[in-house]
Amino acid sequence: MAANEKDQPTSSQVPSPQEWAASKRWNPFNSYKLLSHVHRWRQIRRGKPIPPPVLITVDPTNACNFGCAWCNAAFVRTHRKGSLSEQALMNIADFLPRWGEGNTVWKPGVEAICVAGGGEPLLNPATAPFIDRVIANGVEVGVVTNGSLIYPVMDSLSHCTWVGVSVDAGTPETLNKLKELKPELNTFETIVNNIATLVDYARRHNHRLGSKHPAYGVSYKYLLYKDNIGEIYQAAKLAKEIGCKNIHFRPAGTTWDNVGNSTNTIKFTQEDIQLFNEQISKTLELDDETFNVYGITHKFNSQFDASNHFQKCYAVFMTAVIMPPLGKAADKDAFTLGLCCDRRGDAKLELGSNLTDVNQINRLWGSEDHWKIHDRIKIRGECPRCTYQPHNEIYEQVILNDSMTYKFI
Questions:
Q1: Where does the signal sequence lie (predicted)?
Q2: Which of 322, 333, 363, 382 satisfies CB 3.0 to 4.6 Å to 87 for a cystine?
Q3: What number of CA atoms fall less than 13 Å from residue 160's CA on the CB side?
């Protein structure tokens, strides 16, 4: 164990006061919810059928109209330009309820998807029909978007469980600076108006996104970066005014292709962290029965650096990413099946490239090729901050080691 590891928080520890109000510990960002899948994950065994993932991510496109300073998908935007065709998206939508057919232990089917991307998902004109089809097939949908293109697809988004808008700023000046936007476009105003309109539309039409459920709705997403920490309170106040259900803060992390590259490593100073603590403490005063403040830091250490406390990656059996095909695929309706949203574009984490038949997924999922990818992953030196850190810790500590003696409730 490294000298500084013993005091690093892990996902199995109680969240700090800066994460959320004590009365709201049962929230969408609390990783304890993963314990509800222990019995499913117990089936992850070599040579045995593996249950379909509860959640997958679908990236409709790698194109983007913003240039975020911390972009975690810059590699695919540069090296893997492209989008999923409408036919590919419809094929995927119809396959989701059938993922895992033939498994006698678990009912087949993915239960939820996150529509995100190596780019802005709403740039693909087929994204809205795809969302409609997925929901019609009984699968829940969450969407991550930069918010600039919401208006034309308002109705489709209003049927989602949640929509996270990555604003990452509290003022137009900071947005323009961090996302390489022209001030004369008034993009910040457009995003704020789009959010307010979407919230109002969903409520007036009594759609899922506008329900009074404490976790459904629009989230104002805010990645912490060196130039926006001082606007946390200002952004939260705005988010509450325009009807967002919550504001969600998380430190930006170094991308997978820059791990070990000191020049492109994202670092926070002690002053940055102190300012964050001051801002989040003030912002928590806005938290009430209609608005939630979530400062998600439990996947990082006290310096906001990666804190991957697990030995092997089992998350590659718990979720997946369906992405645009590589290069000029022979079949225009092809797609790529990846295993990690944090390492989009890394060929080492791709189970199938330029696949042409969605039914191939059932053959690949849990195959020996799948296990070989798991075997080759080097957590130290290859992986950035891990979105699925809690998944891996729970698998190792709760399932493999039974550290919680979870049967004794």
A1: none
A2: 333
A3: 28
φ, ψ of residue 154 in degrees (nearest 5): -55, -45
Is beta strand 321-323 parallel, antiparallel or unpaired with respect to 335-338? antiparallel
Classify residue 125: in a domain, yes or no: yes
Q: Which residue type, as a one-letter code, is found at position 32?
A: Y
340-357: pLDDT as tens digits: 999 998 999 999 999 999
Give the C-alpha separation, 100 to 109, whole Å.
6
pLDDT at 16: 52
**DSSP label at residue 126:** T
Q: How far is CA 182 from CA 67, 187, 259, in A?
A: 11, 8, 31
Note down the domain range covering 170. Answer: 22-400
Q: Specify if 17 maps to a domain.
A: no
β-pair partners for 217: 162
Residue 285, CB-side half-sphere exposure with 13 Å CA sphere: 9
**Measuring CA to CA, which residue among 152, 245, 158 is closest to residue 204?**
158
Residue located via tokens 């962290």 = 273
**Cα separation, 202 vs 204, whole angstroms:** 6
Instruction: Decide if 8 is inside a domain.
Output: no
Task: Output the CA torsion 234→114→29→317 (10° steps).
Answer: -150
